[in-house]
Every structure is written in C-alpha cells, then in structure tokens.
Amino acid sequence: MDKKALRREIGAKKRALTPEEIEAHSAVLAEKLFATEQYRNAKSLYAYLSFNQEVRTNPIIERAWADGKRVAVPKVIGNEMVFIWIDNFDNLAPQGAFNITEPIEDGPVADDATALVLMPGLAFDPEGHRVGYGGGFYDRYLAMQPNHPLVALCYDFQLYDHLEVEDYDVPVDLVITD
Predict the structure, then answer these.
(1) Up-side HSE of residue 57: CA atoms within 13 Å toward CB?
(2) Total number of domains constituting the chain
(3) 10-residue mean pLDDT series, the chain (178 residues)
(4) Strand locations in the chain, DSSP E?
C-alpha cells in the first residue's frame, strides 16, 4: 500500500474512534509505557503533544513530571524541529505550526542527548518502521541526534506486518500497541 492510501486508511480509522475510546486506549498505552525499561531509565522525556485522534500524551507528561523527569515538547522553527523544555502546560500556543499545540517561546532548548522520545506516526510495523505525517521533522531531528531511545504508542489498527520505508526513515526501538 502506498503512503497516500495508508494515510487515508489510518485517518478514517482514527476519525471513527470516539473520545471515550481514545481516552481508554491511551490509558492502557500509558500504563504499558510506564512499565518499560526505556521509561524507567529515562531522566527526560521528549513527548509530542497530541493532535486530533492521536494517543493522548498529556497524562504521560504529567506522570513524567510526577516521576521527577524533565519534559520537552516539539516546536517547529522554520523547516526544523527542536524540543523545548516545559514544566507545565501554561505556555503553549494551541495553534502552532500545522495547527499543532507547541511552546510559545523558542527556548530553553532541550539538551538531553539520551532522552526518551515518544514518536508520533500514522503506521508502524514490528521492526519499528514508521510512516509519519509526511513532514520529515522527526527523521531530520533524529539524524542529528541519534542516541535517543525511541518508543511509539499506537492503536492496534496502526500496526502493520511490514511497511515500505525510505532510507532516511528512522525506525523506533519499541512499538507499544493497546
């Protein structure tokens, strides 16, 4: 299946989820994440801020703070993405790049080269390959920052047996499904 058709198929399945289903699946995925070695060993968490029907990350971010971890979230500046440290949800702009919530300020830029990165995406396979949203922001960032453990949280319908990927696509270390 080509990426365009895959994006259409996954988009339709995500839009069919009710808010209650999203919250329930997200809670299960969060608990599975908290049980991983990657989460337990991380001093910092680089987490995306949920958009539309994505797995909810705010509760994960709140738990990371409670667990004493530093948290950073992405911000697009020009054609690049950086992670900005946050310690609450107060200084976020709801209509950032691509209408995704992001920090208002351009700093402080996160500087933990081994922070656990939660990877968003449309589809994943058991080998950690992913199909993103098409901007390449995470792939470019991770090409410059290669030492991060990478974890993806996804609904069962986002997991495929095998995905065709490009050479520049960065695979994740662990895919967690509900």
Answers:
(1) 24
(2) 1
(3) 86 95 97 98 97 94 98 93 95 81 93 95 92 85 91 96 83 93
(4) 44-46, 70-77, 80-86, 92-93, 102-103, 116-119, 123-124, 130-131, 150-154, 174-177
What is each CA distance from 71 to 4, 14, 60, 129, 172, in whole angstroms?
A: 33, 26, 10, 25, 19
Whichever domain contains 140, its CATH number is 3.40.50.10420
d(CA 89, CA 117): 18
**What's the domain range around 146?**
3-177
* Angstrom distance (rounded) from CA 150 to CA 130: 11
pTM: 0.93
Tell me the β-bridge partners of 117: 46, 150
